Amino acid sequence: MANFMNLILNENMKIYRRIRTWIMLGLIVVIPILVSLIVLLAGGGDDTSSWVMMSLESYFLFMLITVFTVVVASDSVAGEFSQGTIKLLLIRPWSRSTILLSKYIATILFGIGFTIVAFIVTLLVNMALFNSTSTTELSDGLLSGISDWNYIIQVYLLKFVTLILIVTFGFMMSSAFRSSGLAIGLSLALLFAGNLITGLFALANKAWVKYVLFMHLDLSPYIGGGSGPIPNHPTTLGFSLSVLAVYFVIFNLVSWTVFRKRDVAA
Amino acid sequence: MSHAPVVRLQNVTKVIGKRTIIDRVSFEVHPGEVFGFLGPNGSGKTTTIRMIVGLMGMTAGDIHVGDHSVRTEFSDAINQVGAIVENPEMYKYLTGYQNLVHYARMNSSITKERIQEVINLVGLQGRIHDKVKKYSLGMRQRLGVAQAIMHKPKLLVLDEPTNGLDPAGIRELRDYLRRLAQDQGTAVLVSSHLLSEMELMCDRVAILQKGQIIDVRSIKGQAADGQVTQEEVHFDVDHPDAALGILEGQGAGKIVDGMLVLSSDRTGIAAINRRLVEAGINIYGIRVKTKSLEDQFLEMTGSETIG
Description:
The complex is a heterodimer of chains A (266) and B (307). Chain A is mostly helical and 266 residues long. Chain A contains eight helices and no strands.
């Protein structure tokens, strides 16, 4: 529907006409370049694999991209409430669900765009500066015999799944509390405390631990055929994705229900 | 213009928790009419307006814009409505033009030419490509009006539109709304607590108190309603006590600040005047004091506490 595209154009305009967005993009481009240059100048040369550098930088960039996308998601919904612009936005011939959908899509597009930029920048910089032909061991010895390309693409895909989950969570918080501060804070807590909480739950050593969201926020243990993120309870990637899908649906149901039903007062 | 009403509220009720915020409010606004919505703070003006534009749901009753119910056919109903709810809040990091494009994209009928036309209409052509954060409140108000009328709505809803405007701005807005109602037949619904403003702007006003409409009245041409208005008349005379004695039986008169004050209509004034002159009282002046809307309003709503 051509008209619905207009809503996404609007959301895009509200994202990309802000200097903030371009500063974020600048960081995504500049940080890997700087890191690689520093490593190069510090003496890492021929013996440094460009693939190792790329995956290290990508892990860090994903954290940044998640933070940025959560900020954009929170602002997209809660920001409209705090600016008061929501009142003018909702009195148009569109249902609230459609408006929320356009916001969600624009946010995910933002995440995809930044991920692609991160991929290209880290790839080009490290190919240019380091040795890409050596197929020696990858980071942390995690790798069990898959090709470098295969490895790095799996990292990006799995990290992106996590990003979607955390952003959807932020979106829900933003729609439920209408406060971008709270939404951003809680989402970041989910992002950073995830590992800690995973450790705690793992101690419990019970079967139901397998269904806890936190356990599945880092899918990298599956790369190269691992048995999943939970010690003692082997899972498959398919299982993890199914658990995440359930949470994904719940988060979205909450967002949509709250956004559709609640009065816009004050 | 006696067409079908543009907006019709039927027993609209809003209950939040146990409190009834809006209690069976019904009224209609007709094409070409400027309808004022008056009430003290907390009386439910804004809540009612938010229900009309669909920002708040209603507990009971229904609102129709044209033939479409806001409840069940929201898109069709809201398509005929332009509104500014409270302050015209815009995206400050976008230019005025980008803000208008944003809202125009949400409505398929608005062309580029129409956007330009509206910009000229509200007189923003010189500054339209500046960021909104550089606008004064008056300019933001104009931009608010522009986004509200872009799609040529049949109903224009303005919540406290004169808030923060200087006298020139208020006057300009008033003239503009009157023109819009007269020339385009737009129905305009304005809420305010500025009574003198409403008196100048509106054809009819509804007075709202504690969520209930306590009165709906015409402002212009009260006599046309067939009611003979009793007005307060001040007689400036040399012996007010004596004059009061002479007029015994002419209704309750009293003496205020050395003036004889009584209520009467046109013919009554002439008769009283004649009697006083015949009795040898010197009259220095007669003044008819029309009750302003403000006086009437305060009289009706009294000094009741909010709650």
